[in-house]
Amino acid sequence: MDLKTFKLLHPVKYYKDYLENNIRPDGRELEDLRPLAISFGVINSADGSAIVKLGNTTVVCGIKAELAAPKALEPRQGFLVPNVDFSPVCSPSYRPGPPSEEAQVHSRSLADAISNAHCIDLQDLCISPGKLVWALYCDLTCLDHDGCVFDVAIISLVAALHTVKLPTIQYNHDTGETRTDTSTFSPLSVHCVPVTTTFVMVSDRLITDPTSEEEKLASTTLTVTVSDGKMSFFNQSGGDPFDSAALKNCTDSALKRERSVRRMIQSMMNKLKGGKDQ
Fold first, then answer.
1. Rounded CA gap, 254 and 256, in Å?
2. What is the DSSP letter of 17?
C-alpha cells in the first residue's frame, strides 16, 4: 500500500506515526507556526482592506463605511459589522448559496473578539449623537481554507481597520441634511491588535496552528485571543480537557504570537506613513 492510500484509509494512524516523533507531515514541529504574510490596501473600491495569508489559508477583508442612524439606546455608538463568507473556491466543502452555519459562527465570534478587546471605540464613529453615525461593514472572504480561518480572519480584519480613513461629515440639525467633505480624511483609531491562536489535540498531542486536515482529526479545539499582552477572548470545543501545563503552553504561545503580529502591523503602517510623507 502506497503512502497516499494509507493516509486516505487510516488518517489517524498516519498522523499518529508522525506525532510520536514530535513532527507533522508538513515538516513542522508540534508548536511551530506557519509563515504569515499581510498586505494592506488591496481593494481600491473599499474604504479599508487587507489580505492575510497563513501557510495556504488566505482571507481578504474589505470595509465599506456608510452613514446610518444609531440605536435608540446607544445614541453615541456607531456600528462594526463583520460578515464572513466561505467562497466555493476555498475548499470543496463549500457550495454557493446563503452563509453557512460555520460562516455565521465566525462572524459572531469576530464581533465578540473585537468588542472584548476594545479594539475599536464605537463612539469614535459618532457624527451627531442620536442622529448620525458611521457603520463599518466588514466583508471577509476566505479564498483558501487550510485551517485556522478564524485566526487569519481576525488579523485580516484588524489590518483592514488600520487602513480605514473617513471623510469629514457636516450634519445640519435643522434640516437633517449631510454634506461630505472629501478634501479631508481622518484615520480610524485602532486601539489594539487582537490576535487569535488556535490549538488542537490530536492523538493526545497538543498541536499549534493546525491545518484543515489536523482540524478534522482533532478531539478538542482551543482558541486564545490576546490583546496588549492580555487574554481577551477564549473558546474551547470538544470533550478532552486541557491540563494546566498545556494551557500555560497555549497562553505563552499566544502571547508570543500577538507581540509578533502587532510589531508586523505597526512596522508596515510606519512604512506606509513614511512613504506618503516623502
1. 5
2. H
Is the Cβ–Cβ distance between 112 and 153 less than 8 Å? no
Q: Give the burial string for 62-96 (b: 16+ CB within 10 Å, else e).
A: bbbbeebebeeeeeebbbbbbbbbbeeebeeebee
Those residues whose C-beta lies under 8 Å from the C-beta of residue 7, and which sit 6 or more positions away, are: 14
Cell, residue 265:
502591523
Q: Which residue bears the cell 455565521?
A: 104
Contacts of 138 (CB under 8 A, 6+ apart): 61, 62, 63, 80, 81, 82, 83, 110, 157, 160, 161
Which residue is it, cell 475548499?
A: 91
Angle at 163 between CA 228 and CA 44, to 5 degrees: 150
Contact in structure between 193 and 229 (CB atoms under 8 Å): no
Q: Dihedral of CA 59/104/196/138: which sign?
A: positive
Q: Tens digit of pLDDT for each residue in 135-160? A: 999 999 999 999 999 999 999 999 99
**Could you read off the pLDDT of 248-261 as tens digits, one per residue?**
999 999 999 999 99
